[in-house]
């Protein structure tokens, strides 16, 4: 499994929307890009993908921008990465990424069960971390950095 720059940018964009979830107003793409350090060129493409898979919704106009389609507790890191890159473990013998497919070597392949186990382990971790949890962690780290005089 490789986490691409596009995956990281998508995760950062969703985190920015999760950080602003309580607000009624959509977050502008320019604000997401600036706050998260994401190149605008990539961000527009990423937001279109996230919109297509119903992670975000868009609002047009002067008050437009993006909001999460669901509560941050219902969106996981795993969901966002799969939306951007497909299955966690991609096998060359299975273009679909579906471990149930028969690649023709089913009876002689000793590796497919291992890759399936690796996929389950990765999914177990990434699907257990929600953006609500990430927001909590982000806010905790910001509180620790505050200096009071």
Describe the structure.
With 149 residues, the protein is mainly α. It has helices spanning 5-19, 29-36, 40-52, 77-85, 112-126, 131-145, and strands at residues 56-59, 65-68. The protein has a domain at 5-88 and 131-145: Arc Repressor Mutant, subunit A, CATH 1.10.10.10. It has 6 helices and 2 strands, in the order H-H-H-E-E-H-H-H. Strands 1-2 form a two-stranded antiparallel ribbon. A hairpin with a 5-residue loop joins strand 1 and strand 2. The protein is elongated.
CA-based gyration radius:
18 Å
Helix percent reads 40-55%
The CATH class of the domain at 5-88 and 131-145 is identified as Mainly Alpha
**Count of DSSP helices?**
6
CATH fold-level name of the domain at 5-88 and 131-145: Arc Repressor Mutant, subunit A
The major sheet is characterized as: 2 strands, antiparallel
Q: Kindly state the mean pLDDT as a whole number?
A: 86
What's the shape?
elongated
Tell me how many strands there are. 2
- Strand-residue proportion: 5-15%
Distance between the termini: 46 Å
Spatial ordering of strands, largest sheet = 1-2
Quick description:
By secondary structure, this protein is mainly α.
What topology does this entry show?
Blueprint: H1 5-19, H2 29-36, H3 40-52, E1 56-59, E2 65-68, H4 77-85, H5 112-126, H6 131-145
Antiparallel strand pairs: 1-2
Helix pairs in contact: 1-2, 1-3, 1-4, 1-6
